[in-house]
Amino acid sequence: MFTFLDMINGSLGYFNMSVKVKNRIYTIIAALGDLYLVYVTFMLLKNHAWLRGSLYLLAIIAISYYVYLNAIYYFFRSDLKV
User: Fold this and answer.
1) Is residue 56 a contact partner of residue 40, using CB atoms and an 8 Å limit?
2) Under 8 Å between Cβ of 12 and 34
3) What's the rounded Cα separation, in Å, for the pair 31 and 66?
4) Where would I find the H helices in the chain?
5) Averaged pLDDT score across all residues of the chain
6) Closest CA relative to residue 68, chosen from 20, 30, 36
7) Are 11 and 29 contacting, i.e. CB atoms less than 8 angstroms apart?
8) Whole-model pTM?
9) How far apart are the first and last CA of the chain?
10) Which pLDDT value is given to residue 1?
11) Residues 67 and 59 sit within 8 Å (Cβ to Cβ)
């Protein structure tokens, strides 16, 4: 997973883009990763792995909170001068 994120970070470093656009891309990638974690959690709970599924559910709640805050900050605030 970290290799994939490092590959994305390296490829975005070649382009000259603002920090706000990069952070928007990172927010979208984090949301996609969170959706994958929702799928894994659903499959764990479906297969009666209650403890691991509930721990993943707590991780989903925490990650979703920060993805939501980043989405509000980078997508819906137009008064920023970045």
Assistant:
1) yes
2) no
3) 10
4) 2-13, 19-46, 50-75
5) 85
6) 30
7) no
8) 0.75
9) 29
10) 57
11) no
